[in-house]
Known about the structure:
Helix content is 31%, strand content 17%. The protein is an alpha/beta fold. It has two domains: 33-279 and 318-398 and 462-486, Alkaline Phosphatase, subunit A; 401-457, Arylsulfatase, C-terminal domain. The strands form three sheets. Strands 1, 2, 3, 4, 7, 8, 9, 10, 11, 12 and 13 form an eleven-stranded mixed sheet that branches. It has a four-stranded antiparallel sheet with strand order 14-15-16-17, with helices on one face. A hairpin with a 5-residue loop joins strand 16 and strand 17. The protein is globular, with a radius of gyration of 23 Å.
Amino acid sequence: MGSSSALRGLLCLAALACVLLARPVLADTAPPNVVIIVADDLGWNDVGFNGSDIRTPTLDAMAARGVRLSRFYVQSSCSPTRSELMSGHSALALGITRPFSKLQPAGLPLSVRLLPEYFRDAGYQTFMVGKWHLGFRQAAYLPNNRGFDHFYGNLTGGVGYWDHVHGGGLDWQRNGAAVREEGYTTHLLRDEALRLVARRDPSRPFLLYLAFTAPHLPNEAPAGALARYADIPDVRRRTHAAMVSEMDAAIGEVLAQLRRDGLEEDTLVLFFSDNGGLNPGVFPPAVRKLMTTLANWFDGGPLPLRTLEFMRVNVLEGAADNAPLRGGKQSVYEGGIRVPALAYWPGTLAPAVASDVLTAADVLPTLLAAGGLPPMAEPGAGSDRWAVVTGETSHRPAPYVVSGADGEAVLDHPWKLVAAGSGEPELYNLEADPGETRDLVAAEPDVVARLRAALQAAPRGASLAVPLWRAALDPDFFGGAEDRPPWSEIQTE
């Protein structure tokens, strides 16, 4: 072969190498499939691996075989947590500090690149099944336009488990088209997830975000599931337990599908709740007394005014258990922000308990690192904590700032400073006092000063929340009669 022929051969090999390097490498070094499972309003003591009387055999087995994330922190309500999960940025910096009302005109800012976009650009199939709650009134904010190839579920907050209605409108769709179908939401979401895994393109990895609506209000469960908890006298707790068990069973079927397809050891599964559980103890005693009195006047409800009835349901119907943690949903105390969580990847993650702090904002950078994918284009509030999950190292993250209906707090483990309303700050050592019963603000002035400075320095974006008076005039009821078109039909470009 002459020198010119040899040169042409080398150039061809170089060109071929460039082509191969430009494509995702999916052979021996294939990145893992990723399944993110999020529960809605699950309490700390609503899972067996935290000591609950609710039977959760699937999650218990995953916790025993995987890594229990014993200090996993989120925001105190759904939209703020989901915004951090999807973006890796602070919810406060994004201006998302309350659950989005169905009247919210925008959503998670379009300037922010989201988790499914990173994975799709790396060659993944991207599927979402379940609750979005990050904007829907403009088409640009819909899941299919934020990086998901496929979306099935609901766009707003809680929906009726049988009628799939939220705030007077049907909120059930597949890829932008309203879907009217019979079935219990947990089962429908399970079935869609199973179909997507079974019909995936086997030559490419997949990302599945499975965001259950359970066990968010309303308290509704199949008769068979309720019968299995007939020994629980409180009908609200009985129904809540049944809802959690149905979700656990659905997760079990998704794992069984992965095993049938030989994917279990090729799939990283992350599970957590979007915030702590809801129960009457979360609310101030005066509010509970008022709602109880009104409910008694009307034989348990419903109350005559829509706003009052919405308040009654939220204040009195929640039945989660956050013990031994203080507070719950929409509170910055531990019961509102420290949630059950685990990572499961047989063959890669050995059974362990990770006691370092991880947060919702850490999920995106951590999953990118776990998959060997490029890091976030713009660093956010979260950081890569994969070495903590694998047990390779232990290190303290940056302080984590949360907000709730009762104020703000900053966590810098083991210390936590709570600025609740207009009262004096409170300081707790969470290592020694996880129940937040002993205020150390007077004994630790230096810690108070440091954490107060961190809280004041936290970036805060302009609030995206709809004024409460507007939301109160047209409440976000969970289930009920339809009085307007389906929510999938109201988008504008």
